[in-house]
Amino acid sequence: MTATGFFDIALMIAFVTLAFGQIMSMLRLLIGPSVGDRILALDTMVINALGLVLVLGVSQGVQVYFEVTLLIAMLGFVSTVALARFILRGDIIE
Length: 94
What we know:
With 94 residues, the protein is mainly alpha-helical.
């Protein structure tokens, strides 16, 4: 088997495992017993989305996807902090 064959198999395994992680995070979001579990599930979904976009960028060879992942990461971090702060304090901006 050639190196490109192994690379294609590795990309497919990465897609499948990240998609499975995304599905499991969605289930935790839906059935999470507490608000903290739901916030953690949303944060995990952002990380899985980052991984999916990165693997997509590697498989297609397009560099724009890497810049998109940086934007998603920044927005995901800010939204997680804002949501956690809203749950703890009741307001986001003091």
